[in-house]
Each structure stands twice: as C-alpha cells, then as structure tokens.
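Let us practice reading a record.
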Amino acid sequence: MSPSRKEAEHAAETPGGRLGVNRLGEERPTEEQEWLSDRVDSWVETYKKSMLTPVVLHLVARHQPTGITTILTELTRRTGWQITERGLYRTIKRLQDSGLLVSTDTSAPRTGAKRKELSLTTLGRAFLSGIAENLIELPAAEIQPPEPQDSHVE
C-alpha cells in the first residue's frame, strides 16, 4: 500500500520541527530532530555526572547521618534520575577518598545488623558551600517560536 498524497506532502514538509512519514505511514523524526535529541541527551548525561557530587553531598548534609538507601531514594525522588546502587557506591567511595564524606558503622534498630551511616566532613561542608555559592538557577522560560521571516525584498 503506497502512502497517500497527503502523507507524501506531509513527509516533504519537515522544516519547522514537523515529523516525516516513512513508507508505512508512521511518523518519524527528521534528521534535525534526531540531531537535536542526541545533543540534548548528551548534555543531560554530562549534567547528571557533574551534578551527582553536589546532589549527593547536599542529601547527606540534609539527612546526616544517613544510609546509602536513603540517599538513593531521595536522589531519585528529588531529581527523577535513575542511578544504580553500584554507581552510587562508586561516587560515595570517591567522596570518602577525597575526604568529603565519612562513614561510621552502626547497628540497625531491632536487628542489630551492621550498616554504614554517612556524614559530611568539615572539608565536605566547605566544598558543598563553595559549589552552592557558584550555582545559578535559571528561571523557567517560556520559549517562543521564531518569528517567520519575510523572504521577499523590496
């Protein structure tokens, strides 16, 4: 079954963010949309990696002393990011090795099971404070579509 004339016209009209139509009549992103999506995804991953340290330090500061499960739960709840326990353990180990976090062994209530509780060190508090002083918060912006440009010249 061949695409209808309307679908063919729609497929040809991809500028301005419209989706193209493939042979089966399914909408597909344009090359520009795919490029943009890849760039945004790449930026978001870079942002997450760079912000994981201050976010973890902030959560420890807010809940200290705290366990890794609390940090993982709060991280997901507050940011929507999905991070594996393994990834979080690696980050925490790096922060401990850097002298920003310290862990203490405690016994869990009722069961007496050993668990580690994390707290900020003096260096960790100073580091988090320095980062907080330099963060900016962008206000929510309403992005307007570009104005159509008049192509005829007088």
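A brief commentary: DSSP finds five helices and four strands in the chain.
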